[in-house]
Amino acid sequence: MLEILQRIWESSGFYQAGGSWQGLVMIVIACVLLYLGIVKKFEPLLLVGIAFGTLLTNLPGADIYHMEMWDAFLDPNNAAYHSYGTILANGGFLDILYIGVKAGIYPSLIFLGVGAMTDFGPLLSNPKSLFLGAAAQLGVYMAFILAIVLGFSGNEAAAIGIIGGADGPTAIWLTNQLAPHLLGAIAIAAYSYMALIPLIQPPIMRALTTKKEREIKMEQLRTVTKREKIIFPIVVTIFTVLLLPSVAPLLGMLMLGNLFKECGVVDRLSDTAQNALMNIITIFLGISVGATTVGERFLTPETLYIVGLGLLAFCFSTAGGVLLGKLMCVITKGKINPLIGSAGVSAVPMAARVSQVEGQKANPSNFLLMHAMGPNVAGVIGSAVAAGFLLAIFG
Amino acid sequence: MMNLLLSAEAAIEEVDLSIGQGLSYSLLGIAVVFAMLLALMVVIKIMGALLGDKPKKADAAAKVDTAPAQGGIPAGKVPAPGSLGDIAIHDVPEKTAAMIMAIVADEMNTPLNELRFKSIKRVD
Fold this sequence. Notes:
heterodimer, A: mainly alpha, B: mainly alpha, 3 strands
């Protein structure tokens, strides 16, 4: 009897908990992330899932995610190299869910839903806003250089840099391809900073613009026809994928989702992509990314560097967009409010809302939201192109 | 999808870069992003020219009526922020008019730039 009780005790997580202090620290971090998601509402849709994945994977004895199995999956000298069969046969619950991340399925399906929810009208009515979406990728490359300076490899630096794109699915997609061992840290940094955009961006926007510039009221947008909206995703897909084939999974899905929305003949599919599918994939993505934050791998100086570089990336991206906005303001003789430039960092629609709020603070009759949506959706395309470029170089 | 699976199958090779190489990749990267989005802008402009609504001749009647309205708020046609066309605002502050338009767009579940508001008039 005593022997059975001892065996039960030894198999329990309480007994095994003494083996790893990192696991205990990660449980505390998971609880902090849950607090931020639930109480402070920091990107709760993903952060709650990620935090719970972190909690599950670090509970001793739970045995639902096996880092060593994924190490073997990536080791060319191991019999299990690139064997999804081994994972399916021997993996735990989260190992099996993680296959969707590993194969790049979840981020692309999230983009399908994002496309189905996005109105590209403001971009079509003001195509110049594409430049702002491009300028706001500055942070990607600044963080990339800084990561190289800090001693990260090219692949790792590229994955860290893409945090500056302020696009969670793109960051997860690229990191998984180039530096999967950094996935947990990069995903958490990317989503945390996206949630903090209303705090990060305004001081930079105000520092780089004058009150007179912030007060500028922009002219109304031109009418965009239904035909334009339907043809846009088809043309963009053909054009961008022919130019940069590596963006096909992300931009292809984004544009398919948008075509569902705009064509008007597949409302059921559009509804599924926007709601049911998006929600299901968000659950899978969050929990399986959280599962990668195993204490022994996560609690390293590298993670701190990533968190710091991610913040710098966001700041540089915001500055890039605002500075180009200022240049465009000068060129157009004051027709463009530079505040809309910061919305080029993707993070739809939060970054556009920040432009609106800051514009109204300077001039209460200013309504920049629709104008900022142009650079905002251009930022989604811009960050996908930046990711495609980095994958083409380092993939 | 094939691309995805193939890229997942490819072994990840660590690439060590010097700072100089990092800088050159960064410059190339930002240039590629700008070039792609510039090309996309040209495509959108062409699409707009071919498929967009042709601008109509300005209607003389749409000229701004400069007669002052009650309460010091001018009655006349002003651009409707974020929506289609001009709007005549009578005795309503511009901020209130914009709020009304935003509420209507939200209630109708239609983007503001797809709605055309003709006038907003205060009814006492």
